[in-house]
TrEMBL record:
Source organism per UniProt: Achromobacter mucicolens
Membrane-crossing segments per the record: none
Protein name: Peptidase M29
Matching Pfam families: NicX
Keywords from the named record: Metal-binding
Domain of life: Bacteria
InterPro entries noted in UniProt: M29_Exopeptidase (IPR052170), NicX (IPR058739)
MF terms (GO), sorted A to Z: metal ion binding
Length: 210
């Protein structure tokens, strides 16, 4: 697969949302099964911005599932290895290019508490990432959406196909992703533009028609 300039531009657009500065050392967390084209695009975009990309690569783990697993946010490739955690800790941007991503990994809280900011790049073909790149600042609309979710007690989802879901939002954990890891201690992922709610157990009832 050949590198295309428009893909470099897409990565650069997202990195600018992360407030990457010229001369900044940016850590790229990879594994041996990372999508090579995305690693290369990240390096080229950062270099074009005047930043210094430093690649940290760990071995991919044996497959234990019968189906492909990617972009779940539940990666275990860091395996609590102190040298790797130390390399990812401290001020500056970490670009997560692992297959599953660190979003829900046990090591992430320590990395964020150290002052790092983390951008998880979903393990997708760059053409998909290109289509899901926007120059719009989604921060305000996403935060407004999160506030609406936090204030809501109930949600009903319906469709002409027959979906009828009743969801209790009281006590639900809510969050948002606008796509730019622009301050220390923040994790975001690309694609972004999401408002999320995690209702408690047995608080979702009804029928979902796909």
């Amino acid at each position: 697969m050949k590198v295309q300039e428009k893909w470099i531009q897409a990565f650069e657009t997202v990195f600018r949302k992360c407030k990457v500065e010229p001369g900044e050392i940016v850590r790229l967390l990879c594994e041996t099964e990372s999508r090579c084209i995305n690693v290369q695009l990240a390096e080229l975009a950062l270099a074009r911005m005047g930043a210094v990309p430093v690649q940290i690569t760990v071995p991919s783990l044996p497959v234990t599932t019968p189906v492909p697993v990617r972009s779940t946010g539940a990666s275990h490739v860091v395996q609590n290895m102190p040298p790797v955690i130390n390399a990812l800790s401290g001020q500056g941007l970490v670009v997560d290019l692992t297959v599953e991503g660190l979003l829900h990994s046990p090591e992430l809280p320590h990395i964020l508490e150290s002052g790092a900011r983390v951008l998880m790049v979903s393990n997708e073909h760059p053409e998909i990432l290109e289509r899901l790149t926007t120059t719009l600042d989604l921060t305000k609309p996403v935060k407004n959406g999160v506030r609406m979710l936090a204030k809501s007690k109930y949600m009903r989802v319906s469709s002409a196909a027959g979906t009828a879901l009743d969801i209790t939002l009281e006590g639900a954990k809510v969050g948002g992703v606008w796509g730019g890891a622009d301050r220390p201690g923040l994790v975001q992922h690309w694609p972004g533009g999401l408002c999320l709610a995690f209702p408690s157990s047995q608080s979702v009832n009804g029928k979902l028609v796909l």
